[in-house]
UniProtKB/TrEMBL annotation:
Disulfide cysteine pairs (residue numbers): 30-45
Coiled coil regions in record: none
Species, as recorded: Helianthus annuus (Common sunflower)
Annotated CDD domains: cupin_OxOx (cd02241)
Protein's name in the database: Germin-like protein
Amino acid sequence: MMSRFLIFGLLLTTCSIAFASDPSPLQDFCVADPNSPVFVNGVVCKDAKLVKADDFLFRGLHLMGNTHNDVGSNVTSVTVAQLPGLNTLGISMVRIDFAPWGINPPHTHPRATEVLTVIEGRLLVGFVTSNPENRLITQVLEKGDVFVFPQGLIHFQKNIGNGYALAIAGLSSQNPGVITIANAVFGSNPGIDVDVLAKAFQVDIKVVQQIQSKF
Ligand SMILES: *[C@@H]1O[C@H](CO)[C@@H](O)[C@H](O)[C@H]1NC(C)=O
């Protein structure tokens, strides 16, 4: 009986390790063919004989994103959608621009750990551990500092300077995904029942409706 539980436990552990990141590639590369009508986990490979150097190239990460928006930040993504050569390779990157005092609001990447470095400016960053502790791990980063946001955890960044700030981050998935907490919870389509949100956030229904109206 005990050993059966042990084997089951081992199987579970093995499975969770296998699913903790993108699957390993089974060939040198599998350049994404976004036009294929076939649905697979990832994107279908382009014929290797037709692959060109350009399939492994993205140009323009030196360009600043436009931060004139409500949060004062802009994320430029280089995932498999922008760089087909990333398909099956389990990696991607982003450039994050911050206006003075701008924020990258609390969000999570369902499929990736993120490692971030500050190129310019000073950032307050943090992530919150899962239930029940919900402990905030926070730090002020200076130029050249590197900080890691573990997979799936809610995290944020804030420019705590009067100038623009710039960060570059690597993510452990070709398609990390992003769930911005405020948008997902208050701006879903259709909206989540106000009573659910009022009870969840322990506020009046009017407060929920007011927040929902902003998204
Ligand atoms: C981010 O910057 C790009 C390039 O300037 C712009 O097209 C895009 O609308 C910006 N996104 C947001 C959310 O402001």
